[in-house]
């Protein structure tokens, strides 16, 4: 019985009740509504472009779109629970945070590593398709993000405090590793692409698209994922601030990242608007 009481107290200290905070419910509702209404059309457009393309489907970007789509539906379910079961909504919100915090950077990191091999080691690039690199990476995203989100949400109730600490910090360390790998790979690719080739200093259209894609990935990482890491660690010693202020802010940043990256991808490939795509094809 003592262990149960200890776990419950630990759980309550890590998941403070924020219902009394002024404007807390309104802010969470705004995050859920904006995430769903803005993100769904963008991701639907990305999926449509990827699946109807004449080229081989981009498995990793399709997987990223599906992942974000699931994230948006979790936000919609959270909006419902927020008003129907306000005392239980925090567990789902925690699940959403860990799910997006783990799977989002992991998806981008795998996409970045695929580009890295294509640019730095082009002769080895066909091996990625031979050994099903994209499919394995897509499966890894789901096999890590979903169980880790469940474990992080349920850990304080069912397991010991020591293991709880490990589970609680694992998403942070995974995000740090993914961000470092993306930054390092992006710097190397940028240097390789900006080197003058046989045609002189003028970059080819393919290289220009690759440079824009690298800048977009780096910008999303530095503007959204890195601040999530910093905010969580800076306020880790204050459970009330972490649970009631920082966690909603982090979910907002992760939701913004899930919208901005598909927008960058579509604009880079000139497929953000269907009318402009038709004009581009007609001008050829």
Task: Give the arrangement of secondary structure elements.
Elements: H1 2-14, H2 24-52, H3 59-84, H4 89-120, H5 125-130, H6 133-158, H7 161-193, H8 205-234, H9 239-268, H10 274-282
Report on this structure.
Helices cover 82% and strands 0% of the residues. It is mainly α. It has a single domain, classed as Rhodopsin 7-helix transmembrane proteins (Rhopdopsin 7-helix transmembrane proteins, Up-down Bundle), CATH 1.20.1070.10. Helix 3 runs antiparallel to helix 4.
What spatial form do the alpha-carbon principal axes imply? globular
The CATH homologous superfamily corresponds to Rhodopsin 7-helix transmembrane proteins
Give the CATH architecture.
Up-down Bundle
Taken as a percent bin, the fraction of beta residues is under 5%
CATH topology: Rhopdopsin 7-helix transmembrane proteins
GO cellular component, one term: plasma membrane
GO biological process, one term: phospholipase C-activating G protein-coupled receptor signaling pathway
Transmembrane segments: 27-48, 60-86, 133-150, 170-187
InterPro entries: GPCR_Rhodpsn_7TM (IPR017452)
Notable traits:
284 residues; mainly alpha; Rhopdopsin 7-helix transmembrane proteins; 10 helices; 82% helix; globular; disordered N terminus; disordered C terminus; G-protein coupled receptors family 1 profile domain-containing protein; receptor; glycoprotein; G-protein coupled receptor
In short:
The chain is mostly helical and 284 residues long.
């Amino acid at each position: 019985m003592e262990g149960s009481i200890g776990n419950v107290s630990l759980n309550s200290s890590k998941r403070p009740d924020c219902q009394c905070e002024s404007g807390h419910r309104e802010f969470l509702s705004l995050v859920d509504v904006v995430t769903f209404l803005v993100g769904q059309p963008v991701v639907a457009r990305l999926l449509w472009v990827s699946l109807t393309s004449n080229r081989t489907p981009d498995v990793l970007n399709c997987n990223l779109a599906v992942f974000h789509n699931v994230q948006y539906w979790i936000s919609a379910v959270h909006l419902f629970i927020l008003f129907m079961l306000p005392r239980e909504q925090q567990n789902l919100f925690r699940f959403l945070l860990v799910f997006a915090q783990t799977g989002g950077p992991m998806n981008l990191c795998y996409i970045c590593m695929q580009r890295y091999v294509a640019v730095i080691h082009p002769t080895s690039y066909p091996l990625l398709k031979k050994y099903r690199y994209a499919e394995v990476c897509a499966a890894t995203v789901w096999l890590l993000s979903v169980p880790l989100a469940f474990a992080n949400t349920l850990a304080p109730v069912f397991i010991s405090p020591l293991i709880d600490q490990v589970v609680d910090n694992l998403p942070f360390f995974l995000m740090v590793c993914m961000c470092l790998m993306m930054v390092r790979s992006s710097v190397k690719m940028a240097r390789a692409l900006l080197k003058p080739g046989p045609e002189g200093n003028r970059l080819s259209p393919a290289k220009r698209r690759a440079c824009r894609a690298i800048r977009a990935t780096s910008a999303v990482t530095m503007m959204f994922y890195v601040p999530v890491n910093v905010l969580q660690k800076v306020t880790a010693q204050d459970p009330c601030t972490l649970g009631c202020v920082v966690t909603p802010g982090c979910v907002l940043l992760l939701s913004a990242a899930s919208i901005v990256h598909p927008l960058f991808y579509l604009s880079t490939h000139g497929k953000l608007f269907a009318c402009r795509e038709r004009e581009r094809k007609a001008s050829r």
